[in-house]
Amino acid sequence: MHPIEIHALPGLGVLRVEGADALAFLQGQVTADIREMPAGSSTLAGWCSPQGRVIALLRIGPTPGGFLAVLPRDLCEAVSERMRRFVMRSKVTITDASAELAIAGIARDSGVPEAAVPLPGELVTLRLPSLRELLVGTPAQLAGAAAGLAPASVAAWEARCIAEGEPEVYACTAESWIPQMLNLDLLGAISFRKGCYPGQEIVARTQNLGRIKRRLFRYLVTGPTLPAVGTGLLLGQAKVGEVVRSIRHGSVAQLLAVVNLDAAGVGLTAEGGGATCSPEPMAYGVPVAGK
């Protein structure tokens, strides 16, 4: 690995949320506490249906005019249109900017400081855990930022995200899981002290009653076929989980899946045959006691 790599990420899109009420609007829509976002950072947040199911995961960061929210491109149009229904009289605009803005990821070795990556000032930088940043700007701006850096693949970036235990929601899995199933509470992406947002009562009740029966886990995959997102995972003949995110990078195939706690820690097989999934440690602790 090169000390500093840049990954073009064409599968990601971006929404602009701007206006005098942008902060208050987002605060009332997503699971994270936007007001407590550290300066110069970003936050992961879920946007949920009234039934508490995650419609999309947003990586949110501030801009001079409001906020940018990064999410899979295949969800941008639907999310922007659906979110506008909640604007009402708020002074806020929501725009799908995916056609004009591109996204790249920066990954650094542990010994490389952030200052070692000179970035054009017009880029928006969303800082992530584990020495990574998302860069948002025009294609020309990103091309300038990439000068002198080692280009790396989308698969390499995805492999990093899976190793960090970071979930994703795509159009095909929207509204499949509640936030705790995706470990959003363990990733600091849910505030249980802030005010209301869509689905908040269900998310809070699930947490308070301890009724979290499914969690996100990581697996190594063996076999000729990489299970696609949404594929069921089996323990024997019983379906016990679904694939959330998967990638093959070089000789290593791995995935994240939401799995029943009573099936955690054991090998599973993918529906359709041809793939065996062996449990791997997560980058953070996942409670399974009392499963």
Question: Could you outline the blueprint of secondary structure elements for this entry?
Answer:
Layout: E1 4-8, E2 12-18, H1 22-27, E3 43-48, E4 54-63, E5 66-72, H2 73-84, E6 93-96, E7 102-108, E8 124-128, E9 132-137, H3 139-146, E10 150-152, H4 154-163, H5 200-209, E11 214-222, E12 232-235, E13 238-249, E14 252-260, E15 268-270, E16 276-280
Q: Major beta sheet, specifics? A: 6 strands, antiparallel, barrel
Radius of gyration: 19 Å
Q: pLDDT below 50 for ≥5 consecutive residues: which ranges?
A: none
DSSP helix fraction: 10-25%
Written account of the structure:
The protein has 291 residues and is of the alpha+beta class. It contains five helices and 16 strands. It has helices at 22-27, 73-84, 139-146, 154-163, 200-209; strands spanning 4-8, 12-18, 43-48, 54-63, 66-72, 93-96, 102-108, 124-128, 132-137, 150-152, 214-222, 232-235, 238-249, 252-260, 268-270, 276-280.
Can you tag this structure with a few keywords?
about 290 residues; alpha+beta; five-stranded mixed β-sheet; 16 strands; about 15% helix; globular
Summed up, what is this model?
The chain is of the alpha+beta class and 291 residues long. It has helices spanning 22-27, 73-84, 139-146, 154-163, 200-209, and strands at 4-8, 12-18, 43-48, 54-63, 66-72, 93-96, 102-108, 124-128, 132-137, 150-152, 214-222, 232-235, 238-249, 252-260, 268-270, 276-280.
